[in-house]
Amino acid sequence: MNKALVAVIILSFSLSSCNMLKKGRNGGKDDGQIVGSKSSSWTPQRPKGMVPVPSGSFVLGQTDYDFTFDNYAPVRTVSVSGFYMDDTETTNSEYRVFVDYVKDSIARTMLAEKAAELGFDPTNGGSGDATGIAAFRYVSGGEDGESTPWDEYVASKATGREGDLPVDQRKLNWNQELFWDKYEYPDIDYAEAIDALYYPPEERFNNERLVDVRKLKFKYVWVDQEGAAREGKDGESFRIDFRHEEEVNVYPDTTVWVRDFNYSHNDPMHENYFWHEAYSDYPVVGVSWDQAMAFCAYKSKKHNDFLSTKKKKRGASNKVIDYRLPTEIEWEYAARGGLQDAPYPWGGPYLTDDRGCYLANFKPKRGDYVEEQGKGYMYTGPVKTFHANGYGLYDMAGNVAEWTSSAYDKSFYQMTSTLNPTMSRDHSENKTIRGGSWKDIGYLLMVSARDWEHSDSARSYIGFRTVQSFPEGSKIKFRKKR
Questions:
Q1: 275, 333: one domain
Q2: Is the pLDDT of residue 128 over 60?
Q3: Rounded Cα–Cα distance for residues 363 and 352 (Å)
Q4: Which residue range or ranges hold the Sulfatase-modifying factor enzyme-like domain (predicted)?
Q5: Paired strand residues for 51
């Protein structure tokens, strides 16, 4: 071999070896001392549709006006960690993604169970050359369709006579397209399985075949860490002892448009608001606190499922920080947009700009629900219709009130810490809502105004938006204050 070539190979190996050893303070060598790996500051990826809210301290409560309403918070200084927040309320189109996922997953489960009943073996892979009901059986393939030892183990548990794997842990086949048109069903077994998702004939109107929304239930698990702390649990055992499994019907209650207003002709809103394309960019309503929490769990799952399909870099995490509802204090802090002692998200003290145009969607006068004659909205309006606050957040006042994660208590602020104040979700079934809505008068739009609703109740004037925490010291580009 050429000596020059040998020298180049040796030099290249030496350089690569040096690069491999440049890890940690001790150069990657074990010298009997404990050292951590050196890492640069972590820069989180900004989730789509969210804006960063920096950490800081602020004076919460009513500072400009002397109201005597019970729901107003007393003046108090608190500190809040930074987080990402949806720049708008969750829209109908965004929530429909959640509903469609639940519908699809239930349909695929029904089809897979039918295929298993007929004896189709999931160890044979995905759809492959299978047709009809067989194409929707449980699958065992890993990435790129290749079966891994774990997939084979799951498949064996799913088909074994003893110790069957629970249905919710089996792998559904998401690569096969569903047939929703009854005239395109591939075979009679498919038709029989999928028909169970629809209202039975005796419950239909005008023989219209519609999905039975009572079956659209989403399951998720959460751990009551605050409860574990109160009980003095330590280690990881609390994850089992304080594990809660929730099953929530996800379809919005569209009857709220009729139920919330007696002697009002709101039938068109009941019929069209959630599903019609014309309302896609309007905030979703008729969603309870329980449903909003379920949406947060699904949003985290959807993002994590996507990241799990990507190759993980060494030392990198392929799991996102969970999406959740904001606490009451986080919501007020974000609503202020960096302004201190301001009654409204835009500052104040007026509800109109210098041209006399209203700055939010609310009820300006007794009996007058229209924000501006000929240009306003009698009910909710599309998101981003009005100007954003200093953090880039829209509709933090008016349009729809918003669920927070905090339990409602009149003495909430006196009871809680001044550092990221919060209260456990099981403290009360009454949850705090903030921001006022399209049916409220001006004072309920103030950033300090408080209100509440039962966690299992849905209203035509309550929606929500999500947040995601990020670690202190993260390199984040914040919006410049005007």
A1: yes
A2: no
A3: 13
A4: 48-467
A5: 85
